[in-house]
Design brief:
The strands form two sheets. Strands 8, 9, 10, 11, 12, 13, 14, 15 and 16 form a nine-stranded mixed β-sheet that branches. This protein has eight helices and 17 strands. It has two domains: 117 residues, 2-Layer Sandwich (D-amino Acid Aminotransferase, Chain A, domain 1), CATH 3.30.470.10; 159 residues, D-amino Acid Aminotransferase, subunit A, domain 2 (D-amino Acid Aminotransferase, Chain A, domain 2). It is an alpha+beta fold. A hairpin with a 3-residue loop joins strand 14 and strand 15.
Length: 307
């Protein structure tokens, strides 16, 4: 999985994988003060290309801004560093993890004197919920843990410490024999998975929720909305109730790691026919054509690793 003999981009230079270390007194270890991104590069006929790299790095900087973490590099420098790291490891396709965090310094809660460090890791990572999940779908449960509200933490930021919420939910799900957890927001409406956004399908209409449901505004979520509308589907963003999920003809997760993963069962209730439905399959097919560089009209979403 990890390129043990590979390279990491760390504070402006490539270092050996084994040297990707931080001090135990780093602020991020004690308080979770970091932000990160998950990005994928895909193999295409024109070489590896990164899906929506610029959008991911823009969100990376916005997440850092939300936590008052001034990054010591420009967006263009981080974009190039991502490509440089992929090249250094010789990957045709891979997962890319930029991370910025508060490093070694005073260990009070206030992080002001702790330096901001930046690293980029790349590794091979297949389907996040398993290859079979892309076709058969996953079994999920609605966790008893609620997604934190935007008045507590900036839900639209992708921050390290915030994912403790996700850890609690997915641990509960796995311990009860499910593949993934779905969180409700504080009002009892659907929020998201532990690392994925949710879409529901009723006939030829597609629904997803928005920031008012305490979700991370996913880059893949945005892509799917645009793709679906391009295919002629009606797509609406609105509050989604728990009952909407049970009644849906189809349901699926989206995310960089999960890509487009069907949901076949929720707490013992079969969704649709208990497999990827026709709308989900159509979107999956288009998505993988796009990321493989087979749809010229979406080429602007791809950044070549080798220019």
């Amino acid at each position: 999985m990890y390129p043990e003999n590979g390279k990491i981009w760390y504070n402006g230079k490539l270092v050996d994988w084994k040297d990707g270390r931080i001090h135990l007194a780093s602020h991020v270890i004690h308080y979770g003060t970091g932000v990160f991104e998950g990005i994928r590069a895909y193999k295409t006929e024109k070489g590896p290309q990164v899906f929506r790299l610029r959008e991911h790095i823009r969100r990376f900087f916005l997440s850092a801004h939300a936590y008052q973490m001034p990054l010591p590099y420009s967006e263009e420098e981080i974009i190039e560093a991502c490509l440089e790291t992929i090249r250094a490891n010789g990957f045709e396709e891979c997962y890319i993890r930029p991370i910025a965090f508060r490093g070694y310094g005073p260990l009070g809660v206030f992080p002001g004197k702790c330096p901001v460090e930046v690293a980029i890791l790349t590794w091979k990572w297949g389907a996040y919920l398993g290859e079979e999940a892309l076709t058969r779908g996953v079994r999920v449960t609605i966790t008893g843990w609620r997604k934190f509200h935007g008045s507590m933490m900036p839900t639209t930021a992708k921050a390290c410490g915030q994912y403790l919420n996700s850890v609690l939910g997915v641990q509960e799900a796995r311990q009860n024999g499910y593949d993934e957890a779905i969180f409700l927001d504080l009002t009892g409406n659907l929020s998201e998975g532990s690392g994925e956004n949710i879409f529901l399908v009723f006939g030829d209409k597609i629904y997803t929720n928005g920031s008012e449901s305490s979700i991370l505004l996913g880059i893949t979520r945005d892509a799917v909305i645009q793709m679906a509308r391009g295919l002629g589907y009606h797509v609406e963003t609105r509050l989604l109730a728990r009952g909407d999920l049970y009644a849906a003809d189809e349901a699926f997760f989206t995310g960089t790691a999960a890509e487009i993963t069907p949901i076949r069962e929720v707490d013992g209730r079969i969704i649709g026919k208990g497999e990827a439905g026709p709308v989900t399959r159509k979107l999956q097919s288009l998505f993988f054509e796009i990321v493989r560089g087979q749809r010229p009209e979406y080429q602007h979403w791809l950044t070549p690793v080798y220019s």
